[in-house]
Amino acid sequence: MASRSSTRPRGRPRSRRIAGSAVTLALASSLLAACGGDGGKPELVWYINPDAGGQAAIAEDCSTDDYTITTQVLPQDASQQRIQLARRLAAKDPAIDLMSLDPPFTAEFADAGFLADVPQDAISQLEEQGTFQGAIEAATWEDELVVFPFWSNTQVLWYRKSFVEKAGIDMSQPVTWDQIIDVASENGGKIGVQANKYEGYVVWINALVESAGGTLLENAEQGVDADLTIAEEPGTVAAGIIEKLASSEAAPSDLSVSNEGTAGSTFGSDQGSFLVNWTYIWHNYDETAPEVAEDIGYTRYPQAVEGEDSRPPYGGIGIGVSAYSDDKDLALEAAACLVEPEQQGKNAEMTGNMPASTAGYEYPALAELYPEDLLALFQESVDASAPRTVTPYWSDVSSSIQGTWHPPAGVDSETPESSQAFIEEILKGGKLL
């Protein structure tokens, strides 16, 4: 069901500054930090993604008389996060106790034996706090939950209320990609998407394919012999939407290099009309462009096929416990604390990365920061979301898609088939990326 904003609540989340400047020193000192040095209370080291404030605060909250949780910041780039953790875990480095994992890498780490088993009592806890289905799917490999869902982000369709009023489109009803492209083209608007040659572009492609009723691949547990399905009809629908936007008047001039930030800038400009982006957009303009902030409306992610519910993108973080930790049992206990509803809510308040459970959304501060119907839309969208295919070979699949679907202006009806053939060659070793 569509939602729209009327008034903006008081308050705003704390600044989302990137804490990447300390990465080099943090990594250099990680082995020393993990040792504890004095033989006293164990120190559990949690390698976190660079979202300022929230994770360090809850690490302090979840430290006990039995152990202290400290944090080390991973690189900003998700691929570099994967490389750094995978290299050290492959060497069975005991200095990693807990780690924040991007969903595309969960299956790879689980399949390699890097992750400790999630205990049944923790699984029961996650069920009781109403962990979203999308979060569970992203945290599962071979029918086993392998990480603790921590935060779950999703995309909605943001729109400029002044633009849709001028254009005369009814946003109280579901809208399709075809509709918003046509409306923006006919009324001088530009649509913000993520279409640079990076993971964010694959997120868009995956959401389009899933919204059209398909998947990128099936039977992922078969590894390199998984069934590739991107060339089926839903892939053709996805390619048609990208081709239509890229060739339309609604395409921004920087479409081929657009990311979350540039798309946000397009949306905040005089040509802003529609934008697909993550939950942080609600407060993105509060200080820099308050007139834009007051002009933001929102509804569910656009339909790829009219009348068929969309499958919005899923993003998030799961907390994995290293199989090689010297304090594995304590780390599992700590992980269960880190994903409790109060901790999810506190992290959302401080970073804008929303909880992975319905109970996390009950954290009181969130009602001060977001309208009730927007919080409901976030939860609806996460529950209906489409995580990227959980496969140990995701890095190869993603890079292959980026190589064959970029630039967006080159996408046409033949792209899905050529993409599928290329992915198969990469997985079977016939070609190198």
UniProtKB/TrEMBL annotation:
Keywords carried by this UniProt record: Signal, Transport
SUPFAM superfamilies per UniProt: Periplasmic binding protein-like II
InterPro entries with a match to the protein in the record: Bact_solute-bd_prot1, SBP
Pfam families found in the cross-reference section: SBP_bac_1
PROSITE patterns for the chain: PROKAR_LIPOPROTEIN (PS51257)
Gene3D superfamilies attached to this UniProt entry: Periplasmic binding protein-like II (3.40.190.10)
Signal peptide: 1-33
PANTHER family with a match to the protein in the record: ABC TRANSPORTER PERIPLASMIC-BINDING PROTEIN YCJN-RELATED, ARABINOSE-BINDING PROTEIN-RELATED
Family designation: Belongs to the bacterial solute-binding protein 1 family.
Protein name stated in the entry: Extracellular solute-binding protein
Organism from which the protein derives: Nocardioides astragali
Lineage: Bacteria, Bacillati, Actinomycetota, Actinomycetes, Propionibacteriales
